[in-house]
Amino acid sequence: MYNLLIVEDEEQLRQMLCEQFTGEGFNTIPARDGDEAIELWSEYKPDLVVLDIMLPVRSGIEVLKKIRSEDNTPVIMLTARVDEIDKLLGLELGADDYVTKPFSPRELIARVKAVLRRSSNNSSERQIVLQNLRIDLSRYEAFIGDVLLPLTGTEFKILVMLAENSGQVFSRLQLLERIYGDIYAGYERTIDTHINNLRRKLEPLAAAFEIKTVYGVGYKLIEAGNNNG
Ligand code: CA
Fold first, then answer.
1. What is the 6 CA–ligand 1 centroid distance (Å)?
2. What pTM was estimated for this model as a whole?
3. How far is ligand 1, taken at its centre, from the CA of residue 225, in Å?
4. pLDDT in tens, 124-157
5. Considering only CA atoms, which of 30, 78, 29, 70 is closest in space to residue 54?
């Protein structure tokens, strides 16, 4: 179970976020101001910190600097102002992502999961091997045999998801949600374009699998020699 430190001085928002994340299976640790955030962060060493910028006692920026001076705990900043985003990006303070207020809890949950996925992939240098397909998750590279596939970021993510769950059918909406969070839910058909591009790049190579359209549902990856469905 992931430990999540949630730093937010608005009580209602803090409580709501704790409830939502608890419901998603996280262990949540609430903090009300910058000092408490640093205290609890040193005590619990959480897997990820959700950090509001405008906080009493010490600002979120100061908390982030303190955390970064010691380690690489993933941090997602909450910000209400556009000029704060400039500051975050401009100073390269090392936040992993940011979400602007107001936001939906689902959006934040999706971002948290994406950042956690990324950081666990980085640390364990995971690979997916499926017949002659090899995906190096830490380097963001996919190979058929020795040939490096020239994939875009989105194509890469789609391929990873299908290959990790070979044989399982995914709807366009599921693919979109897993790739972007639910903010792109209106554009299901863009998945078709990505899938077609992916197929086109795979075509000249002797891939031992196929991305199959499941009519009225979505897509799945099937390995060669497995034609049942
Ligand atoms: Ca605040």
1. 12
2. 0.54
3. 57
4. 557 888 888 999 877 788 999 889 999 988 899 8
5. 78
